[in-house]
Specification:
The protein is an alpha/beta fold and 576 residues long. The protein is built from 24 helices and 17 strands.
Length: 576
């Protein structure tokens, strides 16, 4: 048996424990004739209701532990579960073919998933994966098979699976589960994002660990480097216990930075902000010492409803965050629906390339009533703290000007109504497209600030779908072309006299802190747990040294050369 495996370090930490091999229970699909069609239809309905109850329970636990933005994943699952077209198709199979509920559901789901999986539309292909997860639970409930409960595992368990769904990850009992490892996945997978929020060590993308292990083995998971050690010796365990303690001690030391500003050795003050999806997430932002919010994803407010939220409902949500963070800035992004996010009550057109289609600001400028309602709520909230309004998915100066006109119309309406708001509220844009990044100085004349969204900027610059596993290795923000786009955006912002932050995953990658600081990034906005480490890095940097790193890196031809130079610098100046 192999003793050493390598994967992707998806959520930091070090753990030693025993393997719980999580494999799907094999389902027996009874293909015999139905004795009573009405009974089979009732079994189908009861199974669906039980599944819905389970998903609602998981959603509630997720909201409590991780916040509404993570919980909103399950709203989409429930919407798929309640798809009446699918349900009617399964009922027809029961009636027309006189078959049992589980057989009809299995056939109906398989056909539906095959149809979706063969589409070019990445969003719909992802829905096929979600539907398979839901269908498995539904089939278990029809068949009377208990779904494996990951919340009741023995102490010091390490879950090893081919993959973990969001519902799997949300159920992990952090008192007993010390880490998880998967065959597939990457840093931007739902399970990886949730693991970071849960602060549980995770290594993903190992390839075949579920084929190597039988369950019950003792393993070490080093999620700082992506290394797995199977059946470790006592000496190896001692080494990793020391490494784990060092990581824990460092985390405790980082807590001492909570109330300190991120000021570099040469006196440069840098914003260290948090990203949130709902008012509940503010607690984690404040706990980790963030001095602002660089991204409030308002789409989760829209996704949690069965209709568009009213102006008053939006106002209350924004006001709660703004008051909690005052006097620090709260950057609130307007509705970013489309691409990989949909609303059950808003019919979006079927598109071959939804990430390049009718989404985000494009929808809002066509449906101006949506944007004006949100603008009015945001303006009203600005009376209670420091609000910055941010537009997503911008490609043209015309879009900026149209949005500015609508904002001014809303201001005029509120003045006429005698409603207070910040007359100087800032309007900024996300830098997510090469169209903006490489002409940033011109856009800087039209808006008040920029924020770089590296997730989309990377995929648009490289023409790589970040959700496609087959080409996921090509999705690389350290690619020199992406770094050139980031630097062009930062240089353009400063030439235009405005500030620029970053709110993509890259901002929380402490390997990249020195490079981004050297490029002149004014603020880093990230998952709350990443704030202390990035803050510490900045406090140990000198601008002259970091600028030198940038000069060297921008002359390099490959990602490998870039990373080697960054690692060399980090080892010398940050002790990493």
């Amino acid at each position: 048996m192999e003793r050493f495996l390598k994967g992707i370090d998806a959520s930091p930490g070090v753990a030693i424990g025993k393997v719980f091999l999580y494999k799907e229970v094999e389902l027996y699909i009874d293909k015999g004739e139905a004795e009573n069609i009405e009974v089979e239809k009732e079994r189908l309905i009861e199974g669906r209701e039980k599944t819905k109850t389970q998903l609602l329970g998981i959603r509630e636990k997720t909201a409590q532990k991780l916040g509404e933005d993570k919980a909103a994943i399950f709203d989409g699952h429930i919407t798929l579960l309640e798809d009446e077209d699918l349900f009617d198709e399964v009922v027809e199979l029961i009636e027309d073919e006189n078959i049992k509920a589980e057989n009809a559901l299995d056939q109906g789901i398989s056909g539906y998933c095959d149809m979706l999986a063969n589409l070019e539309d990445e969003y719909l292909r992802e829905r096929a994966a979600d539907l398979k997860d839901i269908a498995k639970r539904w089939l278990y409930n029809i068949s009377g098979i208990e779904v494996v409960d990951l919340s009741t595992l023995p102490k010091d368990s390490i879950v090893v699976a081919r993959d973990l769904t969001p519902s799997d990850t949300a159920q992990l009992d952090l008192e007993n589960v010390v880490a998880f490892v998967t065959d597939i996945g990457g840093k931007t997978a739902h399970s990886s994002i949730m693991a970071r929020s849960l602060e549980i060590p995770a290594v993903v993308g190992t390839g075949n660990i579920t084929e190597i292990l039988k369950g019950g083995e003792e393993i070490i998971v080093d999620a700082l480097t992506g290394d797995i050690v199977i059946n470790p010796t006592e000496e190896e365990k001692d080494i990793y216990r020391a490494k784990r303690q060092g990581y824990i001690d460092e985390k405790e030391l980082l807590k001492q930075l909570k109330d300190k500003e991120a000021v570099s050795k040469d006196g440069t003050v840098v914003g260290t902000w948090g990203n949130i999806g709902s008012p509940k997430d503010v607690t984690g932002v404040l706990k980790n010492g963030a001095n602002g919010i660089g991204l409030y994803r308002t789409e989760f407010l829209f996704m949690a409803k069965d209709r568009f939220p009213s102006e008053d409902e939006q106002f209350e949500a924004y006001k709660a965050v703004v008051e909690s963070m005052a006097p620090h800035p709260v950057t609130i992004r307007t509705m970013d629906i489309g691409g990989d996010k949909s609303l059950p009550y808003m019919e979006l057109p079927h598109e071959e390339n939804p990430f390049l289609g009718w989404r985000a600001l494009r929808i809002c400028l066509d449906r101006t009533e949506i944007l004006k309602t949100q603008f009015r709520a945001l303006l009203r909230a600005s009376a209670f703290g420091y609000v910055k309004i941010m537009l997503p998915m911008v490609i043209s100066i015309e879009e900026c000007r149209k949005a500015r006109i609508l904002l001014e119309e809303c201001k005029e309406e509120l003045r006429d109504e005698g409603v207070k708001f910040d007359e100087n509220v800032q309007l900024g844009i996300m830098v997510e497209t090469p169209a903006v990044a490489f002409r940033a100085k011109y856009f800087a004349k039209e808006v008040d600030f920029f924020s770089i969204g590296t997730n989309d900027l990377t995929q648009y610059t490289l023409a790589v779908d970040r959700g496609n596993e087959r080409i996921s290795k090509l999705y690389d923000t350290y690619n020199p072309g992406v770094l050139a786009a980031i630097k062009a955006a930062i240089d353009g912002a400063h030439q235009g006299g405005i500030s620029i932050s970053m709110c993509g995953e890259f901002a929380g990658d402490d390997r990249a802190t020195a490079l981004l600081f050297g490029m002149g990034l004014d603020a880093f906005s990230m998952s709350a747990i990443s704030v202390p480490r990035v803050k510490k890095n900045i406090m140990n940097l000198d601008k002259v040294d970091a600028v030198g790193l940038v000069d060297r890196v921008m002359e390099m031809a490959t990602s490998e050369e870039v990373l080697a130079e960054i690692d060399k610098f980090n080892k010398e100046y940050l002790g990493k």
